Amino acid sequence: MDLVVYLAGQIHDDWRQQLKDKAKDKGLPITFVGPQENHDLSDDIGEKILGKQPGKSYRDDAASAVNNFRTEILMKKADAVIALFGENYKQWNTAMDAASALALNKPTILIRPESLVHPLKELSNKANITVETVDQALDVLHYIYK
After folding, report:
1. CATH 3.40.50.450 is held by the domain 3-37+77-144
2. Kind of pairing, strands 3-9 and 30-33?
3. What pLDDT digit, counting tens, does each position of 18-71 carry?
4. End-to-end CA distance of the chain
5. pLDDT tens for residues 57-112?
6. Would you give the distance in Å from CA 128 to the centre of its chain?
7. pTM, whole model, 2 decimals?
8. Chain centroid to CA 9: how far?
9. Would you kindly state where each structural domain of the chain is located, as residue ranges?
10. Are strands 80-84 and 108-111 parallel, antiparallel or unpaired?
11. Average pLDDT over residues 113-134
């Protein structure tokens, strides 16, 4: 059984690639999808498609429309969602994606460090499971195949 897993979370480090490599090492038949990881393309896509916008907020709105469209398509096709909350960046996009996954009734794994237990308690309570590391999230997926 092949799974499609949407990887929500910040795009500023290689946590997705680490997870993909570990899944491959375990021989797990999983296809991973997620947000646009090219930050400049993500920010510029609205103007690339719709043309020059009259100001920064319009530019952001145009990019958000295209990015949200992409996210919704990929998330709806996913069998599960992993949402990683880290400590180094503001996590607004992760929170949005996690809430969207829950609204779509997608099985959801939250990854969050101990320092974020309190601020994420409600979201964590709605997720299927909350873990602290990428390895633990992968172990949850691996358990499906046992």
Report:
1. yes
2. parallel
3. 999 999 999 999 999 999 999 999 999 999 999 999 999 999 999 999 999 999
4. 12
5. 999 999 999 999 999 999 999 999 999 998 877 788 899 999 999 999 999 999 99
6. 15
7. 0.94
8. 4
9. 3-37+77-144
10. parallel
11. 95
